[in-house]
Amino acid sequence: MSAQTQTEIFVFGLGAIGSFYAFILNEAGNTQVTVCGRSNYQVLKDHGMTFKSNLAKFGTKNNYRFHGVVKTPAEASSSKFDYVVCANKAITMDPPVSEQIAPVVGEHTTIIVIQNGIGNEEEFQARFPNNTVLSGVTWVGATQVEPGTIIHRDNNNMQFGCHFSKNIDRTQEQARLDKIVDIFRAGGTEIDVVPVIDVYRWKKTIWNGCWNTLTAITQCNTRELLSASPAGPVVARAIMEEMASVAHAQLGEAAAEIDANFIDELLNRPSVKAGIYSSMCQDAKFSRPMEVEVIINGPLKKAKALGIKTPTLETISALISAMDWRFRNGVTGPP
Ligand SMILES: NC(=O)C1=CN([C@@H]2O[C@H](COP(=O)(O)OP(=O)(O)OC[C@H]3O[C@@H](n4cnc5c(N)ncnc54)[C@H](OP(=O)(O)O)[C@@H]3O)[C@@H](O)[C@H]2O)C=CC1
Ligand SMILES: CC(C)(CO)C(=O)C(=O)O
């Protein structure tokens, strides 16, 4: 097929998850993928990506090349991208990400947010009210072990949906959604298109709000923290139950599947029993800013706005926000 018909895709936030999906979108064929590197820019430019997956169908790829590698969106502003994928960490940035990606967002560009958390799309909808915003909740587990080297170790699935806009024709938004879903699938990843993506954002945030914060604070894996004291499982359950009550108040009937069985399943998942860490735990280990707003403080603010008492979320918020403050301000603790 001719280059004219290729779907042009820009990936911003080329860490573990951004690289994983850049790989998938590139593998799909009939796409031109431009990636925006930062600390890994030079490696990607000079040698390409090293991608190692425990899934045989992906295997190991060395010197893996993308159509374009840039340092900033401004460098790619001459192209009009069909899709811009944001897979950066959802942390407060100055300037905000929506401003950083503006040079590659045209009139017909669809923005795709693949991040953990609640409310991540709001910034993009506010800045680009006439662009479609799609939302992905991924369960892929990946790590960038050194610049440009990605290890994919768990899962290959994402829930995906659209926050349909009042300003855009629904058929057009659906077509944009269908097209990229076909591309993701052609690239070899599993996508479940769901009617209300916020239900799945909440489900994942109940998981992250519990395990990410507790593993980050304690630097223990889930098995260690659950067995270290009788209080561990009690606090884990309380976080999940309080978050679920906020999800119910916000989503109503749509949240029916966030029930007691769901919470039991998250608490007793084999991976939790075996012991896992989390992306927030890694961030804490290296004193990097953490996704505290979208994972814990956002849900806490929603609880307050809805008049729901969430004392455990409040406690966790105090602890993790203090750690985040320390990392952002370079405070290392007692001499
Ligand atoms: N890793 C995982 O297993 C999972 C992660 N998630 C979620 O996916 C999202 C991405 O996480 P993850 O991939 O782990 O994060 P990473 O920290 O690995 O990657 C984020 C990337 O964004 C880049 N970046 C940040 N700001 C800019 C900027 N201004 N310009 C250019 N590049 C920038 C960083 O560059 P630099 O390296 O220079 O800092 C980094 O490469 C998060 O919301 C996370 O919670 C969800 C499921 C699993
Ligand atoms: C990989 C996974 C699912 C583990 O909790 C995750 O979402 C994270 O680490 O942020």
UniProtKB/TrEMBL annotation:
<comment type="function">
    <text>Catalyzes the NADPH-dependent reduction of ketopantoate into pantoic acid.</text>
</comment>
<dbReference type="InterPro" id="IPR008927">
    <property type="entry name" value="6-PGluconate_DH-like_C_sf"/>
</dbReference>
<dbReference type="InterPro" id="IPR003710">
    <property type="entry name" value="ApbA"/>
</dbReference>
<dbReference type="Pfam" id="PF08546">
    <property type="entry name" value="ApbA_C"/>
</dbReference>
<dbReference type="InterPro" id="IPR036291">
    <property type="entry name" value="NAD(P)-bd_dom_sf"/>
</dbReference>
<dbReference type="InterPro" id="IPR051402">
    <property type="entry name" value="KPR-Related"/>
</dbReference>
<keyword id="KW-0521">NADP</keyword>
<feature type="domain" description="Ketopantoate reductase C-terminal">
    <location>
        <begin position="199"/>
        <end position="323"/>
    </location>
</feature>
<dbReference type="InterPro" id="IPR013332">
    <property type="entry name" value="KPR_N"/>
</dbReference>
<protein>
    <recommendedName>
        <fullName>2-dehydropantoate 2-reductase</fullName>
        <ecNumber>1.1.1.169</ecNumber>
    </recommendedName>
</protein>
<dbReference type="GO" id="GO:0015940">
    <property type="term" value="P:pantothenate biosynthetic process"/>
</dbReference>
<dbReference type="GO" id="GO:0005737">
    <property type="term" value="C:cytoplasm"/>
</dbReference>
<feature type="domain" description="Ketopantoate reductase N-terminal">
    <location>
        <begin position="9"/>
        <end position="162"/>
    </location>
</feature>
<keyword id="KW-0560">Oxidoreductase</keyword>
<dbReference type="GO" id="GO:0008677">
    <property type="term" value="F:2-dehydropantoate 2-reductase activity"/>
</dbReference>
<dbReference type="InterPro" id="IPR013752">
    <property type="entry name" value="KPA_reductase"/>
</dbReference>
<dbReference type="InterPro" id="IPR013328">
    <property type="entry name" value="6PGD_dom2"/>
</dbReference>
<dbReference type="Pfam" id="PF02558">
    <property type="entry name" value="ApbA"/>
</dbReference>
<comment type="similarity">
    <text>Belongs to the ketopantoate reductase family.</text>
</comment>
